[in-house]
Amino acid sequence: MSKNLTVYFSASGVTKNVVENLAKAIDSDIYEIKPQIPYTKADLNWMDRNSRSTVEMNNHNSRPEMVEDDFSTAEYDNIFIGFPIWWYIAPTIINTFLEKHDFSNKRIILFATSGGSGFGKTVEFLKVSVPNSTKIVEGKLFKINSSIDEIKKWAEDVLEPGYIR
Known about the structure:
The protein has helices at residues 14-26, 52-57, 92-100, 122-127, 148-159; strands at 4-8, 29-32, 78-84, 107-113, 135-142. It is an alpha/beta fold. The protein has one domain (4-159): 3-Layer(aba) Sandwich (Rossmann fold). The protein has a five-stranded parallel β-sheet. The chain starts with a strand and ends in a 6-residue tail after the last helix.
């Protein structure tokens, strides 16, 4: 039987709500990606060209530092990774996380929250950080008020053997 992990980055708490429902739905462990320097409201002001998030997202090689710990992906088969969509891709701290861990023979299933942006080139920008992953799957974009039933149905579908998106 496969063991599932739900990993997430949530700068404002929106993605965390979806993560908690997903973890309940699939009986998953949870791991939070924490930036070394937490994001402030000013850092997240996408209308400010000099805000931290804007500067990071304009440089696809940016790798914000994350809190270090002894976390390992070794015992997991399916790894769900959730994040807010920033400028049609995942925040670059997701690349930081992916590059710090071994995803050999792992199936990575992405999901995101967004106020209006789609997945855009998210998979393309993340694949470079996980060359040994068995598969990286573009998952679902959730709304802030997504129900646990909606989340559970999606998770059950995506975990079915042979699911390809």
